[in-house]
Amino acid sequence: MKKQLTNIALLAAVTIMAFSCSKNDSNTSIPDNGDNGMSIGDTISLDNSYTKGYLTLIAEKTFYVGNFTQGTGVNTTDTFAFATKNANFYYSLSGFKGDSTDYDISFNKSYALTVDTSKYKLAFINKSFEDVTDTTGGTFIPTGLAGMNNTYPSNDSVPTASGWYIYNATTHIVQAYSTRTYIITNKSTGDYYKFHIVSMYSGGQPNAATAALNFPYYHFEYMKLN
Fold first, then answer.
1. Quick check: 163 pLDDT over 80?
2. In whole angstroms, what is the distance from residue 48 CA to residue 20 CA?
């Protein structure tokens, strides 16, 4: 009987602990951060008649956009692609969408990140995305354009150049500069974001060691800092 009572007591203790953990977990659930009512880990499709891709909330106020591409027509062999890709891609950081009349950033046909300098300021910081917490140390880019940083055989980035990628002229592969973060500031509202481009290939990786063809499908992450 004593052994049975001991087992019952242990079972009760375990039950109380489990209930307590469950209660604590519910209390620490991710709050709505004001961005489309998403919780960390949530993913939404960006697909519409001219856009394909997805958006994931990877941390509080931090979004990751993957396989972002824009174009027209139906691709019968690849559902992730358009029959014809647009020359320029547009994206709204707050609206999770974009077109030529409503956007914050764009990518041009040379794969450069661009902003409308009448509305936005663009700067770069030589730090990884995670290490940037404010605009301190940013270098202003008057043209509002950030394209190629350097070319192979020098795999090293150029800290004073504004570009986000290194182009290998031998393999024709583009590699993102990992410690290059951009600050995008809205001149009228004062809102500013940190922004980092991860890749321009579908799935985040080139589909061949030489002359990969699965581009441009942009992958980038960003966070509103104020």
1. yes
2. 44
- Radius of gyration, CA atoms only, the chain: 23
Which CB contacts under 8 angstroms, 24+ apart, belong to 66-75?
A: 66/204, 66/217, 66/219, 67/202, 67/203, 67/217, 67/218, 67/219, 68/217, 68/218, 68/219, 68/220, 69/216, 69/217, 69/218, 70/98
Give tens-digit pLDDT for 195-207: 999 999 999 999 9
Q: What is the pTM of this model?
A: 0.83
Q: Which own/partner pairs from 96-101 qualify as long-range (CB within 8 Å, at least 24 positions apart)?
A: 96/36, 96/44, 96/46, 96/55, 97/46, 97/48, 97/51, 98/51, 98/70, 99/50
Query: What is the distance between the alpha carbons of residues 87 and 89, in angstroms, rounded to a whole number?
Result: 7
Q: Which residue has the tokens 């307590």?
A: 20
Q: What is the mean pLDDT of residues 44-64?
A: 96
- CB burial of 110-130 (b: ≥16 within 10 Å; e: otherwise) equals ebbbbbeeeebbbbbbbbebe
Name the strands in the sheet holding 173-176, side by side, starting at the edge strand that comes first in the sequence: 148-151, 165-168, 173-176
Asked if pLDDT for residue 138 goes beyond 90, the answer is yes
DSSP element (H, E) containing 22: helix 2-27
Task: List the structure tokens of 188.
Answer: 């009228």
